Amino acid sequence: MAQHPLNAQVVFATITGNNEAVADIIIDQLKQAGLSVKKSEISQTEVEELQQVDIAIIVPYTYDQGSLPDEGLDFFEDLADVDLTGVVYGIAGSGDLYYGDTYCLALDSFEKQIQPTGATQGAEIVRINLRPSAEDAVILKLFTDQIIAQAQALQ
């Protein structure tokens, strides 16, 4: 069986632009690795789209005291009802360490929500404080490389 080129979708939610910056770094890394990548804003994305890709990366922000992005609630709830067997996922996002215990809490919520879908975790959650730095880009490259390797192993 010939391997097909991997494809990915990066779904993001942002208020400040920091999470879109995280998503863009991930997308650049995926493209450099030769993948076809679709970028979509969470409120404009149906969870069923993730059934069409090898890799799904979700980049949500955490609002207020650990809340999910309002515009991502439908997407979050719909995740409970989709079968993503064969899809490798990753979750990353920006937060503000100022919020202490609720720092990047939405990332954990999304991980709990996606686990029962049959998707395979490709890498540990990556939490970025505020706008991603050059050091964060290195961490995100490792995150992306791990996810790609996992997806290749599943082919």
UniProtKB/TrEMBL annotation:
Record Pfam families: Flavodoxin_1
Keywords: Electron transport, Flavoprotein, FMN, Transport
Gene3D superfamilies: 3.40.50.360
Flavodoxin-like domain: residues covered: 8-148
The keyword Electron transport is annotated on this UniProt entry: yes
InterPro entries per record: Flavodoxin, Flavodoxin/NO_synth, Flavoprotein-like_sf
Cofactor(s) required for function per UniProt: FMN
Main function: Low-potential electron donor to a number of redox enzymes.
Family indicated by similarity: Belongs to the flavodoxin family.
Protein's name in the database: Flavodoxin-like domain-containing protein
Source organism (scientific name): Convivina praedatoris
Lineage, opening ranks: Bacteria, Bacillati, Bacillota, Bacilli, Lactobacillales
